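Course assignment 3, question 2. Fill in each field.
Student: A.L.
Task: Predict the tertiary structure for the chain below.
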Amino acid sequence: MNKRTGAIGAAAVSRSWTHRFTFVLLVALAFGLMLIGKPDSVLVSHVRMLTIDLAAPVINAVSRPIDAARETAGDVRDYLALKAENESLRLQNETLIEWQRVARELQAENANLREILNFQPGPRASFITATVVADTTSSYVRSLIVLGGRRAGVTKGQAAVTGAGLAGRVLEVGERSARILLLTDINARVPVVAERSRDQAVLAGRNSDLPELLYLPRDSDVKVGDRVVTSGQGGVFPAGLPVGEVVSVENGRVELRPYVDFSRLEVLRIIDFTLPGILQEDLGVDTTKALEPQQGGSGQ
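Answer field:
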């Protein structure tokens, strides 16, 4: 038992001295390298460059396949992107070609109809661009104030439009400003027609975001998604002005979402179509001047 204990103690002492000797040896080696490198930096530099020279070809040989793989992956991505773009352009081209064919057919048909009917073009519309300066919308009225009045040629009853479609009509006019009655106002009434079914109706505002279509025929075929435009009836607006899209047909009530975003109106175009059909008693428009080019025609 004593022999075994002695052997273990001797091994521990030997291990302790070995650790100490190794530590001292490493410190001495590091110190020696510092001494060698300080006086002879040229030798150290040569050794370093020799190591780099030996390692550079290896690094280059290893990196080449990686670079090639990276370039190949980039080429594949570019090819796929170009293929998708080419397919998209092909579809757009087919669509444009189809629209071109339809446009040519409509142009030829329109020319034939004009020739048959001995069509006489009406007077050209004039317009001004007016900035919205105030929003007078409330629970009881939907209207805007624009900067443009009599001095700019604005008169009662003129159409107020945006790039999206019809927004309303001029209700009151001052010298430098005017009030626009929006389509969504409860007092707004606009004769319209559904483009697909050709069902005529009257667009009626409800002081909400969704006006409704009134006086539709009983056999009306109006459906959700149908595009609605002005019909030209009554001479208030010309035919074909975009109004909105049908979004609900339920229980005999047909609701429409206007194309114009009334929450983002900043500029309106006030258009004078010189139409004589607006009732003077209602809008106070002098129709005499509008009727002058049509002397001898049917009266209102």
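Instructor remarks: The CA atoms of residues 186 and 206 lie 4 Å apart. The chain has two domains: 40-121, 126-279.
Grade: pending
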